[in-house]
Amino acid sequence: MSTVALTGLALLAIAVLLLLVLWMRVHAFVALMLTSLLTALLGGIPADRIADVLREGMGSTLGYIAVVIGLGAMIGEMLQQSGGTARIAQSLLKRFGEHRAPWALALTGFLVAIPVFFDVALILLLPLVYSLAHRTGRSLLYYALPLAAGIAVAHSFIPPTPGPVAVAGLLGADLGWVILFGVITGLPATIVGGIWFGRWMAGRLHVPVPLHLFAEPAAPEQPMPSFGQAVGVILLPLGLILVGTAASAFLPQEHMLRPWLRLLGHPFTALVLGTLWTFYVLGLRLGYPMRTVQQCATKALEPTGLILLVTGAGGVLSRVLVETGVGQAMAEALAATRLPVIVLAFGIALAVRIAQGSATVSMVTAAGLIAPLLQAGTYAQPMLALVTLAIAAGATACSHVNDSGFWLISRYLDLSEADTLRVWTVLETILGLSGLAAALLLSLWV
User: Fold this and answer.
1) Residue 221: burial class (beta carbons within 10 Å; 0-12, 13-18, 19+)
2) Are 176 and 245 in contact (CB under 8 A)?
3) d(CA 9, CA 11)
4) Given 75, 196, 266, 388, which residue has the most CB atoms within 10 angstroms?
């Protein structure tokens, strides 16, 4: 097939995917699989080869991502159930003081959402926001937007949350570099969107505490972990992954410690050790029986099944695009625009995000389209990490009525649809653009 025909097939695949998700309301997993099958048939893959291509795409994607997401979810669930999340929030609020509470809440959201899913982290921490707003009489937005910004940025930018893990796996980016650059790009975005925009918006729109949702948090039945213990279980696996990345980047190939540090810093090893440490520190050491710890670990895996299926289906579509030659045609078409690859990655993710809403689907779709372009060039690991974050930034911006997060914010802040567009959609767009700007600046030095 010609380059024009292959590019048209890619556009048709995206159109079919959006038609299935938006108009026919087909589940994203089924829609991705059906689109992959149709693309394979129209792209000329032999009939007896199509099933193998689908299986290879699913297996190669989930073989890495499933382990990382599953173990990360267990750490997050233990943090939530043990009261570690509340301890982090309370300690930071106490240390920062009430007059700097937005900074404490932004940092709390940023830390907690690294292992905890967006909706869980938001619902878990909003009672603290309600209490502060009720006590001070300030607009709820003054406290809620910094918290929501920290959660949103960490959820999209920093592994082991599903989005950046999926994109890094599809692009072959090292998670250590993604974590490092995710923090460097994410913190400024949180400050600009959560602190500055939150303060500005709170001065223009007074949102009272929704009394039908407000209740003072009950005292925990079990002893809570210390601040150091709660933060330590988050930082341990991230630190080990960064150690592995540093060993690969700075130690010579023949150094005797290099293979051992790389093993220690591999995401599988780091997260297994981090999970075991979490079970001990937040479970057994606090007096929870091993049976309760096991039940908590099992519960953590329940919400990950859907995420893994959608992510795996995105990998299937990516594999089909490569097999049909569509990926290479798209790479040539994108390269002809002469735009920086970071801008292209951001733009593709943003377009899919606006059209269908899901950040995860936007990320895996954009990664599947941009991966052939990266494979055709010689990009170092730091640049692959920045492209990963550009995709995350594009999939963060412009949340609106087709995004579940939009309605979550609308409900829990008791905002009208118009006000949610003014507040949440603008906030998410600021976060995405700030992340893109930071990634572009970093790309000048890598």
Assistant:
1) exposed
2) yes
3) 5
4) 388
Structure tokens at 163: 């989005």
Q: List phi, psi (to 5°) of 377.
A: -110, -175
Determine phi and psi for 251, rounding to 5 degrees. -90, 140
Token pair listed for 61: 């994607």
**How far apart are the two ends of the chain, measured CA to CA in Å?**
37
Contact in structure between 34 and 20 (CB atoms under 8 Å): yes
Distance of CA 291 to the CA centre of its chain: 30
**In residues, how long is the chain?**
446
| 285-309 tens-digit pLDDT | 998 899 999 998 998 887 777 778 8
Q: How many degrees, rounded to 5, is the angle at CA 120 between CA 426 and CA 188?
A: 40
pLDDT confidence tier of residue 145, bands split at 50, 70 and 90: very high
Q: Please state the pTM of the whole predicted model.
A: 0.79
pLDDT at 113: 87
DSSP state of 194: I
Amino acid 97 reads G
Alpha-helical (H) ranges within 82-174 are 84-96, 101-112, 118-136, 140-157, 162-171
Phi, psi of 47 (to 5 degrees): -55, -40
CA distance 438 to 188: 8
Do residues 17 and 32 lie in contact, with contact meaning Cβ atoms separated by under 8 Å?
yes
Can you tell me whether residue 83 is helix, strand or coil? Answer: coil
Distance of CA 98 to the CA centre of its chain: 29
- DSSP count for the chain of H helices, then E strands: 22, 0
> 3-state DSSP helix/strand/coil percent for the chain, to nearest 5?
80, 0, 20
Q: Are 233 and 274 in contact (CB under 8 A)?
A: yes
* Token pair in block for residue 417: 């649809």
Question: Tokens 């795996």 — which residue?
Answer: 312
Burial class (CB in 10 A: 0-12, 13-18, 19+), 94: exposed
Q: Which pair of structure tokens corresponds to residue 59?
A: 């297996």
Q: Place 399 in a pLDDT band, splitting at 50, 70 and 90.
A: confident
- 421, amino acid identity: L
Q: Token pair of 290, please?
A: 């091993």
